[in-house]
Design a protein that fits this description.
This protein is mainly α. It contains two helices and no strands.
Length: 70
């Protein structure tokens, strides 16, 4: 039962990070690449990329565990 709940939570978080990445991609060109905001924007995008990759791995691993558990 706990695996089902974890998979739902990870799935929702994964969807959220993907949506945030899509929203952020349109804004990065609007600021022209100069100034401190651009550097902090890039670090946020990098963090979202790593979070998305980590959540996708956890989601896949948990799916395999649930598949083998039944």
């Amino acid at each position: 039962m706990i695996f089902f709940v974890l998979e739902i939570i990870i799935g929702v978080l994964l969807i959220g990070t993907i949506i945030l990445q899509n929203q952020g991609s349109g804004l990065s060109n609007a600021f022209g690449g100069s100034g401190e905001f651009y550097r902090s924007k890039r670090s946020i995008e990098k963090l979202l990329l790593w979070a998305t990759a980590g959540l996708a791995f956890l989601f896949a691993a948990l799916s395999v565990v649930l598949l083998l558990h039944h």
